[in-house]
Specification:
Shape: globular
Number of strands: 9
Strand content: over 45%
CATH superfamily: Jelly Rolls
Number of domains: 1
Oligomer: single chain
Order of helices and strands: EEHEEEEEEE
Structural class: mainly beta
């Protein structure tokens, strides 16, 4: 029996789009991808959700919100705060240990503040994402 080897996708450079039937579709996070994502014009092409990982070294400086679904962010390493801009003020969710996660409600403006460089794993719909600078 012959063994075949395949290269393994990495969520730090490849986005996973999971459709409503739970089928995975790979997407490269190239310049066009990020341009469309930041413009709020990138929807998950097969419906469903985006799953991706992010390396972070410094604060994002950009607020974002997802008007069509919650966002879930898992801490894999490092330490971060998520600042949520709510009607009654800014709330802080501290992620300090691998596996800690933030459940960011639909429509809430939020941004990342780095306490210690590391990585996160994010799940969201991507649909209609909006961004604003400080």
């Amino acid at each position: 029996m012959t063994e075949s080897r395949f290269s393994t996708p990495n969520l730090l450079s490849t986005y996973l789009n999971v459709d409503e039937g739970c089928h995975g579709h790979l997407m490269t996070g190239d310049r066009e991808f990020w341009k469309d994502l930041m413009a709020g014009t990138l929807d998950a092409p097969n419906g469903g959700i985006f799953v991706f990982a992010v390396d972070f070294e410094s604060d994002s400086g950009i607020w974002e919100r997802h008007p069509q679904g919650d966002e879930i962010v898992f801490l894999m390493e490092g330490a971060v705060d998520f600042l949520l801009d709510r009607e009654d003020g800014v709330h802080c969710i501290e992620l300090r240990n691998p596996g800690d996660f933030a459940l960011i409600p639909e429509g809430i403006w939020h941004k990342l503040r780095v306490v210690s460089p590391g990585k996160t794993l994010t799940i969201n719909s991507g649909k209609g994402a909006e961004h604003r600078r400080e």
